Each structure stands twice: as C-alpha cells, then as structure tokens.
Amino acid sequence: MLTIQHLTKSFNGIQVLQDFSCSFPETGIVSLVGPSGCGKTTLLRCIAGLEHPDSGIVSGIPERIAYCFQEDRLLPWRTALGNLEAVLGKRARREALRWLSLVGLEEAQRKYPGELSGGMRSRVAFARALAFDAPLLLLDEPFHALDSGTRAQMEHLLEQETKNRLALLVTHHTPPEGSRIIQMGL
Q1: pLDDT tier at 186 (50, 70, 90 boundaries)?
Q2: What does each C-alpha distance from 126 to 3, 17, 174 come to in angstroms?
C-alpha cells in the first residue's frame, strides 16, 4: 500500500508540503484537489522519485509507475502511434492502435505531435500512460487541454482502467464521480 508519512518539501525556503501524511487504496482513482501551488504536483514528483523530500517517508511504491505530466512530453520525432509503441515493446502495433482508438485518435495515428492540437497531444500522452500498464498511475492534470465532453470520456476510460490499479489524479476540475478526494492546501 502506498503510504506517505510526515512529508515535508521546500523550494528556496518556501514550504510547499508540510507534514503531509496519507495512505492510499490499492486500486481506484484518488483525486488531489486544491489551489495552485499547494503541493499536488510536488507530491507526485516525490512519489515518483523526481524530488526528494526534506523529511518524511514515501513507502509502498511499486516497481512500475506510469507518469502523465502536465506537459504532454511526446517524442516529436515519432508519430502518435510511435509514441505509444515506445512504451509497449513487443505487443506494440496492435495494442498501440487499440489505445489510440480508446482515446478517439485512430485517424491521427500517422501524425507527429507538431501536427496535433493540444487536446490531441494530451490524449496521446494519457493513452501512453495507461498503455504502460503500471500498477500506479501518476496523472498531473492530464485533461487540462480537453473540452468538457472529451474530458468526461477520458475520465470514464480512466475509471475502467483503474479497477486493478491506483491512479493519483491532480485536477482543478470537478473530480471524476466515485473517486476518493484529498483536499490539499487547506
């Protein structure tokens, strides 16, 4: 079980997380909500090992983590299909096409990131994180570039894909129905 105990993190003397503790369920969606700058992204980065806390313990981190950053971070020299194939290994082509279909982008498979809209790039990045098939998904505002209808579709896909894994979702929107909500920064 992923557990955070007394996590504190500062940047240049400004405390972002202070004595934060939480235990997460094994599966499902946990929405991290709160004002900008309250430590939501920093928490994900500490869990992923991209930041080291000033104090506190992060335990129960699985070996495989999928991370969908606020920026899409797609490989610009690879097509939408190629960006998915990059994380899929031997099962690449058929599985990558399935994921593109699930996010409504099967017709964009041969397009490069520079040819895609911001929302389309966000969906490719989201599909790539889901396709990685890790037991822990760290999702940092993955739907920020989507209209409300598309966001609802992606949230539904996320609900389906977290029956056997845990997703920590940073959002400034209304959290998906049925997700556990952790209010940060209050």
Answers
A1: low
A2: 25, 26, 18
Q: What is the mean pLDDT of the chain?
A: 93
114 by DSSP, 3-state: which? helix
One-letter amino acid of 166? L
Per-residue model confidence (pLDDT) at position 175: 84
Distances in whole angstroms, Cα of residue 116 to Cα of each of 10, 74, 121, 186: 36, 11, 6, 38
The answer, as to whether pTM is greater than 0.70, is yes
Helix (H) or strand (E) holding 56: strand 55-59
Tokens of 14: 């400004």
H-assigned helices in the chain: 40-48, 80-88, 92-102, 118-131, 148-161
Number of other CB atoms surrounding residue 84 within 10 Å: 29
Between CA 123 and CA 107 the distance in angstroms is: 13
Q: Is residue 12 pLDDT above 70, yes or no?
A: yes
pLDDT value of residue 92? 83
Token pair of 182, please? Answer: 């952790």
Residues paired with 57 in a beta bridge: 5
- Give 33's Cβ-side CA count (13 Å radius): 13
